[in-house]
Design a protein that fits this description.
By secondary structure, the protein is α/β, with parallel strands linked by helices. It has one domain: Nitrilase/N-carbamoyl-D-aminoacid amidohydrolase (4-Layer Sandwich). Helix content is about 25%, strand content about 25%. It has helices at about 15-30, 60-75, 155-160, 180-195, 240-245; strands spanning about 1-5, 35, 75-85, 90-100, 105-110, 135, 140-145, 165-170, 195-200, 215, 220-225, 230-235. The radius of gyration is 17 Å and the shape is globular. The two termini are about 25 Å apart. The mean pLDDT is about 95. Keywords: Hydrolase. This is Carbon-nitrogen hydrolase family protein.
Length: about 260
């Protein structure tokens, strides 16, 4: 499986962001990935005044753009958006997975809202149900996580218990003291402790850290972008995955009983 992680910064202009998505997917598709991962909040950036007015349904313009690009280039896409919820003032922070045929593979509504580091995401957004979401792409099982979810290892473990061998982590990881260190450390930890791949696509620019990357099951970054706009492509190997899990059978050696949530 080939994965492209794309790094860019969205704006408050939804039309401009849709055009940006179209260009970015077209560019990354030149390297023939099976999956293109775009950052969190790709539909529109966070706004201090709230995001309720810009939220869309899953059949709205943003999702239509993803589906069109997926079909045009024959790639699956994961990207972040704000989805309308039953609370008109507090939508969901949603990851949408679209298949290469344009089908909707799954939607993950962010469970852990970013009420930390002086920010309160729950003022603007509704948390999703505590239900891990996995989807299938090119023979691999992807577990969907968003940004702040990375700080909660129980979610990544629940996704792996549902069969995920790749954790897909779109993010808008806010810059700040030690924040970049936290980002790279936690991505590496989630890969090592679960002996799985981690594919992280982050926003960059003045507000966000960038540092998009793909990490293998031994915690090695096998592709990375840095701070600038761009994308990186990595080849994920089933032999590498099974080999690491044979050498380091930490999942099999667990003593705690875990029942995945459905």
């Amino acid at each position: 499986m080939r994965i492209a992680v794309v790094q860019t910064a969205s704006s408050s202009d939804k039309a401009a962001n849709r055009e940006l998505v179209t260009r970015l997917v077209a560019s990354a598709a030149q390297d023939r990935p099976d999956l293109v991962v775009l950052p969190e909040a790709m539909m529109a950036d966070f706004n201090l005044d709230g995001v309720a007015d810009i939220a869309e349904p899953l059949d709205g313009e943003f999702v239509s753009t993803l589906r069109k690009s997926a079909v045009e280039h024959g790639v699956a896409i994961v990207a972040g958006m704000f989805e309308r919820s039953c609370d008109q003032d507090r939508p969901y922070n949603t990851l949408l997975a679209v298949g290469a045929d344009g089908s909707l593979l799954g939607a993950y509504r962010k469970i852990h809202l970013y009420d930390a580091f002086g920010y309160k995401e729950s003022d603007q957004l509704t948390a999703g149900d505590v239900a891990p979401v996995v989807v299938k792409v090119a023979g691999r099982t992807l577990g969907l996580m968003t940004c702040y979810d990375l700080r909660f290892p129980e979610l990544s473990r629940a996704l792996v218990d549902k069969g995920a061998d790749v954790l897909v982590v779109p993010a808008a990881w806010v810059r700040g003291p030690l924040k970049e260190h936290h980002w790279t450390t936690l991505l590496t930890a989630r890969a090592i402790e679960n002996t799985c791949y981690v594919a992280a696509a982050a926003q960059n620019g003045k507000k966000y850290s960038g540092l998009s990357q793909v990490i293998d099951p031994q915690g090695i970054a096998i592709a990375a972008v840095g701070e600038s706009d761009g994308y990186a492509v990595a080849e994920l190997s089933g032999d590498r995955l099974s080999g690491v899990r044979q050498t380091n059978p930490s999942l099999a050696n667990r003593r705690f009983s875990v029942t995945p949530r459905s």
